[in-house]
Amino acid sequence: MAGLTDGVRRPVDGAGRTDAGVHALGQVIAFTYTGRLTAPALEAGLNGLLPPDIAIRDVRPVRPEFQPRRAARYREYRYTVWNGPRSPLNERLALGVRNPLDVVAMDRAGQAFIGRHDFSAFGAVAGSKSPIRTVHAVRVRRRGSLVTIDVRADSFLRGMVRRIVAVLLEVGHGKMNEKEVREAIVARAPARNGASAPARGLCLRRVVLGRRTETDTTDGDD
Description:
Helices cover 21% and strands 27% of the residues. By secondary structure, the protein is an alpha/beta fold. The chain has 2 domains: 68 residues, no CATH class; 137 residues, 2-Layer Sandwich (Alpha-Beta Plaits), CATH 3.30.70. The strands form 2 sheets. Strands 3, 6, 7, 8, 9, 10 and 11 form a 7-stranded mixed sheet that branches. The chain has a 4-stranded mixed sheet with strand order 2-4-1-5, with helices on one face. The two termini are 20 Å apart.
């Protein structure tokens, strides 16, 4: 979704960072537009100019003070794993993993992340006000060879989702268990020496706007 403001000029402002190699399906951005086009006409015009791997949808006017990062109630990322024979088509947007994954164990271990924790072990804290984040849900599911890992939180430390995924993949391969995941969270040292899943499997699925109860709005994942 894109929001346009009238009057005060502002840079393009997003609800979260998606660095090189990470995808976004439901990013929310705000920008200044002082022209005369209606929102639908502006949307069509922008899409006509953008490269083929970027699209804008649902353009609407917002208040000048609107800030997507602060307005986001929570964000939801999905990491996709192709757990089957090599498939160049499927692995364009997914991590290819050949050895079978124990998805039940991964889902069980994922529940350790739910709640309000110090996530220093799973993300970069430099420049952040606090390493404490609230994770609302973690879900690991399989459909055939496709394994999805969904993580929903109020906000994320930089690299947090990819590091969570790296640890859950270790669980799926039988190299870690739920108890060790909980211990890694408490230890606060970089989990698995800071191991991080590759960027291409990660997608910002949606940003839900609404009233927030917390003041720390730092967010990002790469």
